[in-house]
Write a structure and sequence with these properties.
Elements: E1 3-4, H1 10-20, H2 24-32, H3 38-45, H4 60-74, E2 78-81, H5 86-101, E3 107-110, H6 122-130, E4 135-139, H7 146-154, E5 158-162, E6 176-178, H8 194-208, E7 216-225, E8 228-237, E9 240-250, H9 257-266, E10 272-274, H10 277-288, E11 297-298, H11 300-306, H12 315-321, H13 332-347, H14 354-369, H15 377-391, H16 398-403, H17 413-429, H18 433-440, H19 445-483, E12 489-493, H20 501-512, E13 516-521, E14 526-532, H21 539-544, E15 552-555, E16 559-565, H22 569-581, E17 593-594, E18 597-598, H23 607-615, E19 627-638, E20 647-653, E21 656-662, E22 676-688, E23 691-703
Parallel strand pairs: 1-17, 2-3, 2-4, 4-5, 5-6, 7-10, 10-11, 12-13, 18-19, 21-23
Antiparallel strand pairs: 7-8, 8-9, 13-14, 14-16, 15-16, 19-20, 19-22, 20-21, 22-23
Helix pairs in contact: 1-2, 4-8, 5-8, 5-14, 5-18, 6-7, 8-14, 12-13, 14-15, 14-17, 17-18, 17-19, 18-19, 19-20
């Protein structure tokens, strides 16, 4: 068992350890996971909503707000047009819940039903015009509907696109586009899911309904230096920094340039926000003299009311306590003050904090289900959403959590991936996504119970259909794998339901360890297909090669789909196999295993579980923490029932013995009590009847060299 532990930069590790007050192991693991800038640590260490990227960084959001506010005021007929998968359904539910709360009365939802294709079609356009909608808001689609949106706009129907897919060469002529993958959108992170984009849009609309919207101010702090006063000022609009200045003014003289620059910055008739106005005024008099009177707005009273634990703390004291200042190389005190001002502003309005958290429950589910990269802002969205799902789930989700034995459990991404997302996805796969949508917007406990039972029944049906479909294409998949040099799998046929192509492609990709495509022949002259792969391959880029043959295609790195006329199928398959033949050799299945760290006995403590919790949520581009130990002693092996494909045992390493579970053991007969082993594992937690216990989840294990 070859285990690779990445090299680390000792200087960077030391800087991370000291800056964020972390232990050496945590700092080392973060550095090995690519922590380059101080701001990157934020997404591992923080959960507060104040750290989210502002939707107002996308210029089109302002236009979308104006158009939606007009629709609310005029009581227009508005349509949400979503998608059938978990991302599209949760995004549609988020938008529906949010717009209803904001007062939009005439609101309908349309998801692709039955065997309808992804996204808008000419038939969809005719339906929209027949029903006299005046505004359409797409969720998790729309960025490729160029001709359809043009038809709607020419007919007087406005369209707002909320999407996260990669755009084509031409953008749709919608009223507003909020898609982080659109070049020049202004949004600083392009990895959001469609449902997260919908949630950000609702947050922006809620923000626009508060006095904060359109407001500008200057946050200021002056501090003494040796014979001078340093003044930091930050200009903020909609809680976004738009400008800042730092000047050091020598007391009793010196060049007037610094004073002039600072006065020009402040003389814009904006409120000047400070903490402890009397102290700040003294500093300003030392800088400018008694003849200059600058009006200040003191947030001390509000701070004491909302954060009483900081009562009587000076800004200097708060800067020493604050983590916010550690994510920037700027002056700690002004960074702390800006962070406090944002926090007090956002948490003053439940619509921007507590109410928004409820929507993040759905955004977390959709983000996990759509295999979004678990980095940057996605970590904040999923962490907050999972916490809400664990502690205060929406009433509509309580029956599903209960039936899946997740009620009261501290949920993780694996729980959502295995027990929640497939149930919600089943409705769309069987052509009834509105059944899942109905559950996610329900506020009636009895109704939610019935809808949950319906979805669970659909999921059982979906499982049966998938098993049957997989058996039908398995031999074709094996043949394709061999024909394509063990680089790729392509399978399908007219007996495959369109709604199952994604799940089948995912199963084949995992089974063969290569990218997989499953194609379904439909009865109306169209071909639909789905592609799944690991994040070492780019599905969307691969499919773009064949764009001229498609009527539509889209997706992202790990998951994508397409449709085309049946007459193009043979040409597509021929071209795909030609491209695949030029690809390099596939990565070996038994490639070198990698660990985040090799652990000495003295580090084998519950601190490893705290480190694992810091790294959660896990997912794409942030794999589960894996640790390596050598020469551990098997102290006990629990006899398993015949046919069970798992192994339970205990090992001693360091001071304690640890329970272990190995789901797919090999050569299990050699791992007996008293044998020493080398182990690659993940810290895991076992929940059983209200009891929580640490355990090791074994990834790989072998007999230690000393034993062999």
């Amino acid at each position: 068992m070859e285990i690779k532990v990445p090299l680390s930069d000792s200087g960077k590790v030391r800087a991370i350890k000291e800056r964020f007050s972390l232990d050496l192991l945590s700092a080392t693991v973060l550095e090995r996971r690519g922590l380059e800038n101080p701001s990157d640590a934020l997404w591992y260490l923080e959960t507060d909503i104040i750290y989210q990227h502002s939707p107002f960084e996308c210029d089109d959001v302002y236009t979308a707000i104006d158009r939606i506010e007009s629709a609310i005021e005029e009581e227009e007929n508005v349509l949400i047009f979503g998608d059938r998968d978990v991302d599209g359904v949760t995004g549609s539910a988020i938008l529906y819940r949010g717009l209803r709360k904001l007062g939009l009365k005439n609101l309908s939802v349309r998801l692709p039903e039955g065997d309808e294709p992804y996204g808008m079609t000419e038939e969809t356009v005719r339906e929209i015009l027949d029903k006299e909608y005046t505004l359409v808001i797409t969720v998790d689609n729309g960025i490729s509907a160029v001709s359809e949106i043009e038809m709607l706009e020419k007919s007087g129907v406005d369209v707002i696109v909320l999407d996260h897919h990669i755009p084509g060469d031409e953008l749709p002529g919608a009223v507003a586009l909020f898609d982080p993958k659109v070049a020049g959108s202004g949004y600083p992170f392009d990895g959001l899911s469609g449902c997260a984009v919908a949630a950000k849009m609702i947050w922006a609309l809620a923000f626009a309904a508060t006095p904060l919207y359109g407001s500008e101010c200057i946050v200021l702090h002056a501090e003494p230096r040796n014979g001078s006063v340093r003044i930091n000022a930050v200009r903020i609009e909609n809680l976004i920094e738009i400008d800042r200045i730092t000047e050091e003014i020598i007391e009793g003289g010196g060049t007037p340039d610094a004073r002039d620059r600072l006065m020009d910055f402040l003389a814009v008739n904006l409120p000047i926000i400070v903490l402890d106005a009397d102290t700040e005024k003294k500093m300003l008099r030392r800088a400018f003299g008694n003849g200059v009177d600058i009006s200040l707005v003191d947030i001390r009273e509000k701070l004491d009311e909302m954060m009483p634990r900081f009562r009587s703390h000076s800004l200097f004291d708060l800067a020493m306590l604050s983590r916010a200042a550690k994510y920037s190389d700027g002056d700690k005190e002004i960074e702390t003050l800006v962070s406090l001002f944002r926090s007090l502003s956002i948490h003053s309005y439940p619509s921007l904090s507590k109410d928004y958290d409820k929507l993040l429950e759905l955004a977390a589910i959709g983000t996990i289900a759509d295999l979004m990269p678990m980095k940057n802002e996605n970590r904040l969205i999923v962490k907050r959403g999972l916490r809400m799902l664990s502690e205060k789930p929406l009433d509509c989700l309580k029956p599903l959590l209960g039936r899946q034995n997740l009620a009261g459990k501290k949920l993780n991404t694996r729980d959502i991936s295995f027990y929640i997302a497939p149930v919600l996805n089943a409705a769309g796969r069987l052509g009834h996504p509105m059944d899942a949508f109905a559950l996610l917007i329900s506020d009636d406990p009895a109704e939610a119970e019935g809808l949950t039972e319906n979805l669970l029944s659909m999921n059982r049906e979906r499982q049966g259909l998938e098993e049957n479909a997989l058996s039908l294409i398995h031999s074709a998949a094996a043949e394709s794998f061999e024909r394509n040099g063990e680089r790729f799998v392509i399978a399908g046929g007219d007996n495959i339901p369109r709604g199952l192509t994604g799940a089948l492609a995912s199963k084949l990709s995992k089974e063969y360890g290569v990218p997989a495509i499953v194609i379904a022949d439909t009865c109306d002259g169209r071909i639909s297909g789905s592609m799944r792969c690991s994040d070492r391959f780019d599905a969307k880029v691969f499919l773009s090669t064949f764009q001229p043959l498609f009527t539509d295609y889209g997706g992202h790195r790990c998951a994508a789909g397409f449709s085309l006329p049946v007459e193009n199928k043979d040409n597509l398959l021929m071209m795909m196999e030609s491209v695949i033949s030029t690809m390099g050799e596939r990565e070996e299945q038994d490639r070198e295993l990698e660990a985040d760290a090799k652990i000495p006995p003295e580090y084998m403590t519950t601190g490893l579980w705290r480190l694992s919790e810091m790294l959660e949520p896990y997912g794409q581009e942030n794999e589960t923490l894996k640790l390596y130990i050598k020469n551990a002693l098997i102290t006990d092996v629990i006899q398993q029932k015949q046919g069970q494909s798992l192994m339970r045992f205990s090992i001693r390493f360091g001071t304690y013995s640890w329970p272990c579970i190995w789901w797919e053991p090999h050569d299990r007969e050699q791992f007996r009590k008293g044998v020493h082993v080398d182990v690659l594992f993940s810290p895991d937690v076992n929940y059983w009847r209200g009891t929580v216990k640490e355990q090791l989840l074994i990834a790989e294990m072998e007999i230690s060299e000393a034993e062999s």
